[in-house]
Amino acid sequence: MAERIYTGSCQCGAVAIEVCVDLDKTRTCNCSRCQRLGAVWGYTSLDKLKVLKGEDQLTTFTFNRHRAQHKFCKVCGIQPFGVGTIAVVNANCLDGVDPRTLQPEHADGRSTPTVQQP
Question: Given this model, what pLDDT does residue 64 score?
Answer without folding.
Answer: 67
